[in-house]
Amino acid sequence: MSNQQCSLRTGWAQTDITPDEKVYLAGQHYARISEGVLDPVTATALVIESIKAGETCGHVVMISCDIVGIADELRDAVRENITTALPEIDTKNIFFNATHTHAAPTARYKKRYVPDNNDDSSKEPPFGIELEAMDPEAYVKFAAERIADAVEKAWENRQTSGIAYGVGHAVVGRNRRLSYKDGSSRMYGSAETPDFSHFEGYEDHTLQALMTYDTDKKLTGIVANVPCPSQVSENSFRISADYWHETRRELRRRFGDGIHILAQCAPAGDQSPHVLTYKEAQKRMWRLSGTELGRDRSRESSTPRDEIARRIADAVEYILPAAEKDIDWAPEFAHKAEVVKLPRRKITAKDVEDISAEKENYRKEYESLLEELEQHPEKKGEARWYVPVTRPYKKMKWVENVEKRLELQKTQPDLPMELHVVRLGDIAFATNPFELYLDYGIRMRELSNAAQTFLVQLAGPGSYLPSERTLAGGGYGSVPASTDIGPEGGEVLVDWTVKTINDLAEE
Question: In 3D, which of 152, 146, 153 has the Cα closest to residue 42?
């Protein structure tokens, strides 16, 4: 980077993106209509602006959202609103990430795997049956307006700032793919069986934190980068930000009610917060301790969520005193955004043949359950009556996408993905849209020439990007239906990310 002195301005804002009506909850292969709010889902915006010789020489806006993924339609709607409200912001400099809570409103409505992205705009029910819930397109409009307002507030709140950073460790995510003696792997498989062999891959417990300070050296915000999706309450029928709700609350309790927290999920395609071994011993400890952070017994899964919040806050508390000794008031800034074409995972005729019987079974089950509902409409008076019929429908559509991709790859062999890299002094941020397996993330981090590299997954619509060894094991997260990009595309992603991080340091 150049030696020209620069200064930094940052601005923060948070907004509530919780709707006040029933919505479809995203994250499972069946419909869930929200039954109230366990805790609010939010969006947090951080503006970073670099100043040289009194002039703005660059800026980025990071936005973290408590949703399952960042669909193009949500990204584009936010950018469109900002273009109107704040033309001084280059919307190409805005990037998003999702915390991947499985209990947030569905924030996508366009069909996937449509040639040339031509949505036929048909309004067929999202789960194959009419349900009373807010239309996902309406929710995207609602959320986009609120997120854009938060960006506007963050821009208005810009002030001269310094940054500090550090790394600690917190056990949040655990490898969720179990391997067996026959060579197969299963996500959330059981270890309590004689044919269990080992966990398939590495576990990353690294926690990275970036702090912002005002000119009085008062802490104004924390970017917390954790390699684990927020999935403790993933089956909830109530809207929830999952463990990030308790984490924000605990960080503010320790470090100040007025601070902002921007949550990032680092590569964690093969990690989750669920305990898969020694489960009974862990449950006993939760039961015996029982009072973590003054837990509210009316909350779902509150004990593991509070435990995660304590661990993250402990790691940040370890980082802060050391990091504050080295606040950087003049970090060099560089940013690059590029739409990179990644080769699609090639679908074969055998892949389609392998799922044909599965698809037919789901179709028959769906049609049978639908017919039963028509013959017995009184069943619609039962709680969650729609779940059984929507499960095979959603599974049918999920495997059906494999057939669509076989045709699509003939004319569109590559999948364009928007990627961002930011250099801020000695650190770097790099995004990807996937649930990225740790094998890729660790390589990126180790090959980066930055002192710390904040890798941010789910900065797009999501889908697993498995490594070569995970494909051999098979199972959910590695089968064609759950992976748009395979190891060939993963290599392109790693190479582009590392080269861009390292090249920006030389500019």
Answer: 146
Backbone angles phi, psi at 37, to 5 degrees: -125, 120
Beta carbons of 228 and 273 less than 8 angstroms apart: yes
Q: Is the pTM higher than 0.90? A: yes
Whether 167 is in a domain gets the answer: yes
Which pair of tokens denotes residue 324? 């504050």
Length of the chain: 507
> Which of 297-311, 313-327, 330-344, 482-496 is least confident?
297-311
How many domains does the chain fold into? 2
Residues 75 and 196 in one domain: yes
399/497 same-domain check: no
The whole-angstrom separation of Cα 245 and Cα 18 is: 13
User: 406 and 336 share a domain?
Assistant: no
Domain hosting 385: range is: 349-411
Domain final position from 391, 411, 431: 411
Residue 342's DSSP bridge partners are 415
Give the lowest-confidence range in 2-6, 106-110, 419-423.
Answer: 2-6
Residue-wise pLDDT for 62-112, tens only, equals 999 999 999 999 999 999 999 999 999 999 999 999 999 999 999 999 988
Residue found under tokens 């599974």: 395
Q: Which residues of 453-480 are buried (b: 16+ CB within 10 A; e: fewer)?
A: bbbbbbbbbbbbbbbeebbebebbbbbb
**In angstroms, rounded to a whole number, what is the distance separating the alpha carbons of residues 79 and 478?**
33
Spatial neighbors of 328 by CB under 8 A, at least 6 apart, are 162, 163, 164, 425, 426
